[in-house]
Every structure is written in C-alpha cells, then in structure tokens.
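Internal tracking record. Fields below are filled automatically when a chain is submitted to the structure queue. Please do not edit lines marked as system-generated. If the sequence contains nonstandard residues, flag them in the REMARKS field before resubmitting.
Queue: standard
Priority: normal
Entity type: single polypeptide chain
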Amino acid sequence: MNVEFINPFLSSMLNVMSTMAQMELTPEKPKLKKDEVAMGDVSGLIGMVSEQTKGSLSITFDAPLALATMKGMVGEAPDEVNDEITDLVGEITNMVTGGAKRMLSEKGFEFDMATPMVVSGPRHTIKHKAEGPIVIIPLNSPQGKAYIEFSFDK
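SYSTEM-GENERATED OUTPUT FOLLOWS
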C-alpha cells in the first residue's frame, strides 16, 4: 500500500468531521483488516480509479457517532439509523474522498470517483474492489468510533 494515499484520506476525514460536525476524532494505529465484516453500524463505500491504480475507501460509523454527527451538522437527529443517517454517511464519504482527491492531485495522482454506496446493519460487509491489502484506521470520539478503510491495487 502506498503510504502517500493514507494521509490524505485520514486528514480529510478529520477535517470534515471537525468543520462540518464540530467533532474531534482521535486516530489509532493503522492495521491490516482480514475480513469484509464492517466494524460499525453504517458504512459508505466509494470506488476510485486513476491511471496508476484503482481502489476504494470506506467510512464506517458506530450508530451513536452517526447520530451525534447528524446532530452536530444539522442540530437534530433521529433516534436510530434511518434513511437520513445513511444519506449523511454517503455525503460524508463523498466529502472525505473529494478532500483526499484534491490532496492526491497535488501529488500527481488524478482519481475519478464513483458514487458512494451506503450499507447498514449489524455485521454488514464491505467489499473493496482492489486486489491490495485493506488498511483500517479506528477513530475515537466520546460519542463512539468511526473506521476509515482503504484498499488499492499494489
């Protein structure tokens, strides 16, 4: 995995959550993920393709953090994960990927992005399209955890 890809996504995620939802997330150490089962309750997944490589990014939220994120962004939130929350996670996935895409462009990597797909429910799966390893970074907050995952072809 090209380490140059990790920091733009992580930086963009922290920036989006800070500016849009007034939430500070604390990253933990990245690790390799061995299966497709999501660590949280609702995930956004987006594919990315460039001349150099292809891959995908997913962002998974624990339900309490997803609800708190909506409350931080719009002032109110439902009591449980519903269509509004899945739409929000898709939009956050789009914003994070867009921010990372800008940073990667400055390094000479031009990516085209797909439309995000959102999956929710206990033990849902995330199927990355790339052949490379899946790197996952847990992100802590007082409201719960988020997880950012990426996989790119070698």
